[in-house]
Specification:
Strand 1 and strand 2 form a beta hairpin. This protein has 1 helix and 25 strands. It is an all-beta fold and 401 residues long.
Length: 401
């Protein structure tokens, strides 16, 4: 969950149908030319939005708010403006009505393949600190890795800039390749800890290596240090590790009861929604409800195998993007449910959450790859398309009729 508001999503991944072989799960959109942005409008409310379009049989209307190049993630400021990340390294400040934007930072990212500027989340104390947390992929000794960073949003006379940018944490080891960076961020409900996802970089076995931070959920302090009391540190693991045995973790969020949920792409089948419990092993690459891309079998999750099984899994795949747990009043029938963006499935997926249990709900055809799902301050649901063939539009969903 993105706090103080809700969180979700996803680098403009281009997953082929059925999740595609690992190298194709997110092909690169080429870098785009930067168009100078205007100063955001001062109004915090979207008063000029066009009427919503309703698709037959769907319970929500769609209003296009803005269009981007290759967006990955977004979050809302307290005044309803938005921060949006673009794959090529630009972070944008966008007015609440979507009509004005300006570039507040240009991060030196490695944007090949699934790389780029990724998640963006406000600090729990943003009103005082003005801190903005974000993730991106970068070159490092030995290859590339995912990085967690922080900056301060400063505004003067209508001009905004992200200043004092500092690197807080980087995945280790750095390895070759352009895939499975992950890079999702969620603060604990009390604001004391930062949870961060690091993918296994299509290298498989590091997910089970306790000394590597690849294929892991990490629990850090807000300054990027390993949080004290992490469950595996005493056993010789990297002290930042919270859980292990993960593949490509592209969504992480807390529900209202404080449960931490995570979704990740499976291989050929077996996309997962997991309840994250401290110290648990989630099985990759030793257990999965999917198969390897060469057709060879992977043992399915089964009781007593020592691995934590997903609460929900998909085959055919949905290619999960962002994750959001809904808590608003605009759709009261869905309060407490999980919403997942579907990439290759071009869908918005709802999962019924009931305590620590989960069951599949709805899957709506969106006609485009959905990279990110967010809850707006008004309780509307916002989806962010992936870019490329899917345009990259930001769409506001409100009740039909």
């Amino acid at each position: 969950m993105k706090l103080p508001l809700l969180a979700a999503l996803p680098v403009a991944l281009i997953a082929c149908s059925g999740n595609g072989p690992a190298p194709d799960e997110s092909g690169a959109n080429p870098p785009v030319a930067v168009t100078p942005g205007a100063t955001p409008s001062p109004s915090p409310s979207a008063t000029t939005a066009p009427p919503a379009t309703v698709v037959d049989g769907q319970p929500f209307g769609r209003t296009v708010i803005a269009d981007f190049d290759a967006p990955w993630a977004m979050t809302f400021l307290p005044d309803r403006r938005m921060l949006v990340t673009e794959k090529d390294g630009r972070m944008l400040l966008v007015s609440a009505d979507g009509q004005a934007r300006q570039t507040i930072a240009r991060i030196a990212v490695d944007s090949a393949g699934q790389g780029g500027l990724m998640d963006v989340v406000l600090a729990p104390d943003f009103a005082q600190s003005r801190h903005v947390y974000f993730s991106y992929s970068a070159a490092a000794q030995g290859g590339k890795h995912v990085v967690l960073a922080r900056g301060t949003l400063q505004e003067t006379n209508g001009a905004a800039q992200l200043t004092g940018i500092e690197t807080l944490w980087g995945a280790s080891p750095a390895v070759t390749g352009d895939g499975h960076y992950s890079g999702r961020i969620a603060f604990s409900p009390d604001g004391q800890y930062l949870f961060f996802t690091a993918g296994e970089r299509q290298k498989f076995t590091p997910a089970q290596d306790p000394k590597a931070t690849l294929g892991k959920v990490l629990r850090l302090t807000p300054d990027g240090k390993p949080a004290p009391g992490n469950p595996l540190a005493a056993q010789g693991s990297d002290p930042a590790v919270w859980t292990y045995g993960h593949r490509n973790l592209l969504g992480i969020a807390f529900d209202s009861a404080g449960n931490l949920w995570e979704q990740e792409m499976g291989p050929k089948g077996g996309d997962e929604l997991n309840l994250i419990l401290p110290g648990r092993n989630y099985g990759w690459p030793n257990a999965s409800n999917g198969s390897n891309y060469d057709g060879s079998d992977i043992p399915d999750h089964r009781p007593g195998d020592g691995y934590e099984a997903p609460k929900v899994w998909w085959n055919p795949v949905i290619s999960p993007g962002g994750l959001m747990i809904y808590s608003g009043s605009m759709f009261p029938q869905w309060r407490g449910d999980a919403f997942i963006g579907g990439l290759s499935s071009k869908s918005l997926v709802r999962v019924d959450l009931n305590g620590t249990s989960a069951t599949k709900g709805d899957q709506w055809d969106m006609g485009a790859r959905i990279r990110e799902v967010e809850q707006g301050p008004d309780g509307a649901i916002y989806v962010l398309e992936d870019g490329g063939d899917s345009q990259g539009r930001l769409i506001r969903l409100t009740p039909a009729g």
